[in-house]
Specification:
- About 55% of the residues lie in helices and about 10% in strands.
- The chain is built from 13 helices and seven strands.
- About 30% of the residues are buried.
């Protein structure tokens, strides 16, 4: 029957389910291992393919398993689900991973390095602090609006509310105390976000890839670092449209019988990069509205016929394709003749 050639692992916090398969697809073993026994067990196995779902802890385990000489394949969980037979449990999940890993057309996720995961943590931490700051600002605006103190949206408008409190607005004492607590917490988060922004700018300056990406209008240090951190190697995409589709910036297809039907933007890809590209594209669109682009340019023609948000989505798609071309050819951004983007 031969020795095991594939080991599929269903990761968990404490107990790992492993499924060993031979070259002919027959089952070699099914085992449940604790964290302490997991790596020693793999070290005792012959060199083979170890497949796992691409979850949060898979990259750390993948690096350790590669040190043992095994080949690691990480599979997106959505691609494993169709191979689960009937009932779902750890053993069925591990078997499904083994089935998915041997498909010739399966798409795998590259194992991230520690540096890539550190950059991801930097990005996620900043994103968390920004969301918390937004929640606090909205809470402060909402509470004070009940007493007639109204300020526009935005971080820059918080000072207006703070000034009203300092000028002795006619408010109950408890409201003043609680509002000052919220203001103090907002100030703390402002400092945290500013510190992480400086770290991201420093990381972008130190990276040749990030510097190259920032030559494109609409891409700043945060977006450049996000592309470098979360996107796989551009060589894994055959063309720029494949990268745009991976980001979820292409239309959703409902085609059948040779008739092409395209729907809304799929939003099925990497949401962080997609969100930042759309934000950057919207900034370019606003600039084009304030300062009209050259006659006959793509963005000028689009703005004349389509709503701004639709133009921003289309521009984000173009930016994704351009990113693929820039990184594949190792070239800086080249402004098309007569175009604003």
């Amino acid at each position: 029957m031969g020795e095991v050639t594939m080991i599929a692992v269903d990761l968990a916090k404490r107990l790992f389910q492993v499924h060993g398969a031979r070259a002919d697809g027959s089952v070699a073993f099914r085992k449940t291992l604790t964290r302490a026994r997991f790596l020693p067990f793999l070290a005792a196995q012959p060199r083979c393919v170890v497949a796992m779902e691409a979850c949060a802890t898979a990259h750390g385990w993948g690096r350790e398993i590669m040190k043992l000489g095994h080949e690691v394949r990480l599979i997106p969980p959505a691609y494993v689900k169709p191979f689960v037979k009937r009932h779902k449990n750890d053993a069925a999940d591990a078997e499904a991973i083994a089935e998915a890993a041997v498909r010739p057309t399966m798409r795998f996720v590259a194992v991230k390095t520690q540096e890539q995961q550190a950059s991801a943590m930097l990005f996620r931490s900043r994103d968390l602090f920004v969301r918390q700051r937004t929640q606090l600002i909205n809470a402060l605006r909402g509470h004070l609006a009940e007493y007639g103190l109204v300020a526009p949206r935005g971080v820059a408008q918080v000072d207006r509310l703070a000034k009203a409190l300092e000028e002795g607005a006619d408010l109950p004492e408890d409201v003043v105390v609680l509002a000052r607590m919220l203001l103090e917490q907002i100030a703390v988060l402002d400092a945290r976000v500013a510190e992480l922004d400086e770290r991201m700018r420093a990381a972008s300056r130190a990276s040749g890839t990030a510097r190259r990406l920032q030559t494109m209008p609409g891409i700043g240090p945060v977006t450049a670092l996000a592309v470098e951190t979360f996107a796989p190697a551009m060589a894994s995409f055959r063309r720029g449209r494949d990268f745009a589709a991976w980001l979820g910036l292409t239309p959703l297809q409902h085609s059948s019988g040779g008739k092409q039907r395209l729907g809304k933007t799929s939003k099925m890809g990497q949401r962080d990069i997609r969100r930042l590209l759309i934000t950057g594209a919207m900034a370019v669109v606003r600039s084009a509205v304030r300062t009209p682009p050259p006659v006959g340019s793509w963005i000028g023609n689009m703005l004349a016929r389509k709503p701004r948000m639709l133009v921003a989505i289309a521009l984000a798609n173009k930016m994704a394709r351009t990113i693929w071309a820039m990184l594949t050819r190792e070239e800086d951004y080249r402004d098309p003749a007569g175009a604003a983007c």
